[in-house]
Amino acid sequence: MRWRGLQDILLRSPVTWLALGAVAARLVGMPLWDPPAPDARRVEVTEAFVDGLAWLQGERTGHTPDAAERVALAQGYAEEEVLFREALALGLERGDTIIRRRLVQKMRFLVEDATPLGDPTPEALARVVTENPRAFQGEVAARFVQVVLPADASTEEVQAVLRSARAGAPEDAAGLGVALPTPDPEGALPVSVIARRYGAEVAVAAEAGPVGEWQDPLRGPHGWHLLHVLERHEAPAPDLADPRVAKKAEALWREGRRGAVNREAIQRLMARYQVVLPGPAAVATAEVSR
Questions:
Q1: To the nearest whole number, what is the mean pLDDT of the chain?
Q2: What topology does CATH give the domain 141-233?
């Protein structure tokens, strides 16, 4: 389901279709952009080009176009090409914000595609982990038992059960409350799992409350909770030997590196132009270009 949502987003993206066009061009052996024809009034749609259009149509719809649909694709492209050339002849692209943004978007895509990132070194990944502590922060885990009472239980009833629980062994207290799936006393649960199962209030008490004693009653989504934390494990330090940590570190490295590489490439393009900006913007641009 998650993949289907991502697929829908990608298939609606113009950048995706530009990339798919490049793939189709490679597959059918045609250039991504046809060179200008000697005769500007001639519009030629080759069989190879129609193959590419049919491939894109099949990817978008899941249906391979038949002969009649291929003819329609060719005619539609020819009509679009004629209108496109006439629009350029009239200068309709000038001053159009949407066209400007689309061209800039395509240019950013080409810049990104033309600047490979390489592979991160172990030292680079270690720096990512050090510089992004919150991204790699582990979870506290707690081993506990609890007694759950109905939400409409009176204060006197809750306190009476709490006294009974404190008088005996923690593992024997579960029968004092209502039927509710309780954690295995032999295994610790991460606080995120505790929150999903028993509510945020119980998770906070398991993470930050006292260990080795029955805590004061607290209200949760299931009613009154009496909690006894048997053991708590602090969040482990991130270890790049863990594949999950390594994968996240590499993803963050690539994200940061991609931004830096793209900025460098765009600065090289800007260096080809004489850029004149007003006041503070001119100073900031000069500092960046140094």
A1: 79
A2: Chitinase A; domain 3 (3.10.50)
